[in-house]
Amino acid sequence: MCVKRLKNALGYFLKQGLTLARLRGARAARGDVLVFLDSHCEASHDWLRPLLERVQHKRDSVLTPIIDVIHQTTFEYEASETFQV
User: Fold this and answer.
1) Could you please report the per-residue DSSP string of 11-42?
2) 3-class DSSP state of 69
3) Burial class (CB in 10 A: 0-12, 13-18, 19+), 1
4) In 3D, which of 76, 75, 83 has the Cα closest to residue 47?
5) Residues of 36-65 as b/e, b for ≥16 C-beta within 10 angstroms?
6) Sites in the chain below the pLDDT cut of 70
């Protein structure tokens, strides 16, 4: 059943765009927490735990993590030192 939902959401995305596909995915979601991760993002070790801890304290939270930077010309990686909400 989940595969069918995913295929339907993907087909919808291809026809309607990212925002509408996410809205449809949100309506079809059945879990306790809904997380969207953009295609250009790479999840590092333990990235989700701090977000879920904050959701646990306030169930209607909308969170955005600090995004690490890769310099556009040197490709040097600059990690965020702290997590802020």
Assistant:
1) HHHHHH-HHHHHHHHHHH--SSS-----TT--
2) strand
3) exposed
4) 83
5) eeeeeeeeeeeeeeebeeebeeeeeeeeeb
6) 1, 12-13, 15, 65, 81-85
Residue where the block lists tokens 């690490």:
68
d(CA 64, CA 41): 12
Query: Is the pTM above the cut of 0.85?
Result: no
- Decide: helix, strand or coil at residue 46: coil
Question: Which residues pair with residue 77 across a beta bridge?
Answer: 70
- 12, 24 Cβ separation under 8 angstroms: yes
Tell me the residue type at 51: L
Q: Which two tokens stand for residue 25?
A: 């995915």
Angle (CA) 5-11-14 rounded to 5° is 140
